[in-house]
UniProtKB/TrEMBL annotation:
InterPro entries named in the record: Cell_wall_metabolism_enzyme, Dup_hybrid_motif, M23ase_b-sheet_dom
Keyword hit for Signal: yes
Organism: Chitinophaga horti
M23ase beta-sheet core domain: residues covered: 197-294
Lineage of origin: Bacteria, Pseudomonadati, Bacteroidota, Chitinophagia, Chitinophagales
Record-linked SUPFAM superfamilies: Duplicated hybrid motif
A UniProt-annotated Pfam family: Peptidase_M23
Signal peptide: 1-17
This protein's UniProt keywords: Signal
Keyword presence, Repeat: no
Protein name listed in UniProt: M23 family metallopeptidase
Amino acid sequence: MKQYALLALIAATYCWAGCKSPAPGLFGKRTPHEMYSARISDAGLEQTALGRLWKAAAAQSLSQPVTVNLPYSEEGYFSADKPLALGLRFIVKRGEKVRIALSVNSRPRAIVYLDLWEMRPDGPKALAAADTAASILEYEPDASTSLLVRMQPELLTSGDYTLNITTGPSLAFPVQGGNRASIGSLWGADRDGGARRHEGIDIFGKKRTPLLAVAPGTVNRVESTNLGGKVVWLRPEGKDYSVYYAHLDEQLVRSGQRVQTGDTVGLLGNTGNAKHTAPHLHFGIYTFGGAVDPLPFVNPLVKTPPRVTGSPDIQRVRTKAATTKIYHAPNSDTGFHSVPQHTFMSVQAAMAGYYRVSLPDGREGYVNTGSVVGLGTPLRQLPVKTAAVIREAPDSLAPRKLQLAAGTKVAVLASYNRYHFVQHEGTEGWIEL
């Protein structure tokens, strides 16, 4: 009871402090997750089984994350009796902004921590953090990189959650009314018979269509050149690169002018070496190291996560085939182990085509949703030949739940190793074969 009272005190203290906590991601200030972890230590709870499991889960989520492809979505459930920490690793291109949105449905309200990390050779580097009071993280990397998001609820909380990870452009689209179909020539295409490569993208449209500032910033230069014709250079505020608009029919800004996102900087045309082509904007981005592909910065085609195909309401399943593969990551044909037919699994989350599951021995992984079925329909009625005990777990040392007399019939729902998972008169548990 002391442990539960202390945990309640920690939760109450954090709920009060959370409204006053420093903005996450600022150097020298602890994240909400770090503050809660410190409270666990201060209360002496890291010496308890639950406290140790919570901290071990947090560490494992960073050292052994699951690799996923973006966009990504999952719906799941976290239980009060088993500390959970989920680490998902993914790639984000330079110019993209990643958006991580978490919604939690619980009563009473559960606190769930989100932390974003960059995966580096010398270990993860913390980038940003939030809790369910502000359960959206957005981040724009300075270079294409591997990121990791960790989700972890407080101790002794349970609830349903939905997690979505998407990417989108970090800049606004530069041509008024344009879309992905307006882009007709991409980065790296041959120019001058292969003598050089295209250092930008071409966005086509009607002549004198307004060209828009893609971000707040300052106009660097307004000039005319043989190659670009009438051009405008814009330096977005707080960025280490400049944006290049070329082939304008008319420039409508001056050097040194401050602009806001959506302000008109010029009109689309075909000046310079584009005089024999259809009107278009050559749009480029230049860093101190040279040009970079601008498409991720402005690509208006934002993909939505695949639809979750499994049911997050199914929390226990059994396998259907003679053998079923449990994968280390979704959408992966490598890294798996196999289990026999009717194997019991607990479902932690559902996503497109997969369930994340755990076996009774604690091993976790991913199974195809079509390879398992819920436990609603018993496999068969089994008469117990001799007196038997229903236990909480498939272990001869697990606590007893019910004593069965010889001849008692039980409904068999699933199995694991030498045990059946059974149901009898409202009691569920494990009996040894």
